[in-house]
Amino acid sequence: MAAFPPGAVRDVGSEAELDTITSAAKTGVFFWAAWHEPSKPGGQMDTVWNKLAELHGPTGVRFARVEAEAVPTISERFGISVVPTFVLVEKGGKVAYTVEGADAPALTQKVQAFAAGVTEAAPAMESAAAGAGDGGEVGASGDLNARLAKLINSAPAILFMKGEPRAPRCGFSRKIVGLLEEHKVPFSTFDILQDEEVRQGLKTYSNWPTYPQLYVNGELIGGIDIVQEMAQEGDLAEQLGVTRAEQ
């Protein structure tokens, strides 16, 4: 791999290349998409990222850029479901900070802390004994699971996505909406950006760490990769077991 000049931003095209970078130094990774104006080359957040590289690159932090949809293996590895997303990785691969969205002040603050060696404090955890003593933790978990089950079964086909069908907030959500509409699959949606409890809880409930997630008749079908494969194999609505929407 070519030299990594201080202050430069390197475009990364493979997991192996990224691993080589992160194994040698603290690294900031910027996930972007060509369809998202603020994050594409020359956009607002791209400009901010380049400026941060100029400021903090000489301190030993490396700055990388990954086109999220072009290198899905890296995006899936870090659970990327919205662009822009910035992941700050300690030397060796441990994630120190993650910043989602075009929030330049928050990004600047996190990069400054990262470069200075300040790590994000983990949330305080109550002891298992305390949780069991008052029943609060168990009750809260049970309430959330009941709510998730109700949501999943609220429509024959429901898509948990970032944004809405007419205004998706990530490329993966945009793609899966396009496939479902192209194949005349009737579906409802839930915008997980509007409910952090559902966003985090559903990943555990379904044992599926990324979004979007498609459910049919209360059963998890999967994300964009699985739906794409099904669409390539034939009639998507028929495979999902739903009635095609009228023309």
Automatic annotation (TrEMBL):
Keywords: Iron, Iron-sulfur, Metal-binding. It holds the Pfam family Thioredoxin. SUPFAM superfamilies: Thioredoxin-like. The keyword Cytoplasm does not apply. InterPro entries: Glutaredoxin, GRX_PICOT-like, Monothiol_GRX-rel, Thioredoxin-like_sf, Thioredoxin_domain. Residues 1-116 form the Thioredoxin domain. The keyword Endoplasmic reticulum does not apply. One of its GO terms (molecular function) is iron-sulfur cluster binding. GO terms for biological process: intracellular iron ion homeostasis. One of its GO terms (cellular component) is cytosol. PANTHER family: GLUTAREDOXIN FAMILY MEMBER (PTHR10293), GLUTAREDOXIN-3 (PTHR10293:SF73). This is Glutaredoxin 3. It comes from Tribonema minus.
